[in-house]
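Issue 218. Parser rejects a valid record. Input:
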Amino acid sequence: MLPVHLDRTRGVPLGAQLSAAVRDLVAGGTLPRGQRLPSTRALARDLGVSRSVTEQAYEQLVAEGWLETRHGAGTYVAADPARVPEPGPRPRVASSRPLVRLDTGTPWIDPRQSAAWRRAWREVSTATPPRGYDDPAGLPELREALAAHLARTRGLQLDPEEVAVTAGTTDGLRLLLAALPPGPVLVEDPGYRAAAATARQLGRPVLDHPARTAPDDLSGVRAAYVTPAHQHPLGRVMPAAERVALLDAARRADALVVEDDYDSEFRYDVAPVPALASLDRERVAYLGTTSKSVAPALRLGWMVLPAELHDRVQRQRRLTHDAAGWPAQRALLSLLRDGYLDKVVRAARRVYAERSVRVAAALGPFGTPAGPLAGMYSSWLMPQADAVRARDAARDAGFEVNLLSAYCRSAELTGLVVGFGGVTDAELDAALAALVRGLEGRGPVSPGSAGRRPPAPAAPRR
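Output the parser choked on:
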């Protein structure tokens, strides 16, 4: 008799229970290869079940390759035991509460607009989904709405067919880089870490370029990734002269400029700077996202590519069934039609403007702003030792604040990058108080020492 127990009170069919039990006996080595099993009739009698239960279990295990039947001889084990390594000790997981993140990418969403959010998803639930695979470029109605949105907010005059919906900025970057010929990608330093990681994952070398100036020589470069409206993470706006020089350099080198326009709508002082792509549509690939205006979890964005590259990318997406999810696209269409994006952006802009002043008041005595105050975060230049001390004090108080050096690859800038979008006012005040506690006890930073790593110690003589 097989050492098997069947439980009729479980919500699992008896045949499935029996096949799982015999499978475990074989995989564990209790039943070795070549072992003859009881007949289905005998096993059914031993277990007190109908013969159909044992026949079903044996047939399943024969189909999976664990058992084999020999004509006129019975049923035998056909597989060796599975070699499963002994599990090692599980690492201990800290039981402390998770840190509240003051990151650069989590937005503040006006809670007064929650009704529109729910209404959009109700509309999704009543809409008819596509019969087959989605158009890889996105819903035609959404592309039309996005074209109108970009014309009104970013100065891009587009046909809807020129817009393609993506699963976010890094998805769009991955798609367009995969469609380009081989060659390195120039990325701002310090810069968006996901952009450099995406290029490397595609096997492309990453060339660092100092983020405080625009590149004016792209010789040997296939693409240059930039954030001209609000450099990430320094906050610098690329001046008009540098924009023109960058495009001239791209034309001379036959390189593509990739514009990540991730949060240009959140300017407090003046109207948003027009997109770089508005100056040259055939030399600039434009990327946008809903992560900063709607929600990162929506995982939606858009891209506007030069015509030939657009066609190449969409052919590849069609071949691989690569498309943003239909429910999220349909919800975004409802939000655009309802004016949701305009409302949450206006409200968030006011909140960010007020919070940026509070951050500046707290950190101003200890550091130098890396760029103009805009968006949902600000970066502050200060010596690395001071930044680490402030970061550690914030962590002790339950907050996670990033060091500027974490965004650098070869650059030597140091300081803090403080996000203020994804927190409450009370959390922001508590985090700033902790940062100040970590920075107290010294005078204001002198202009010459702020934001530079201390020189490395001299190597010992051999």
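Fixed in the parser; the record now loads. DSSP finds 13 helices and 16 strands in the chain.
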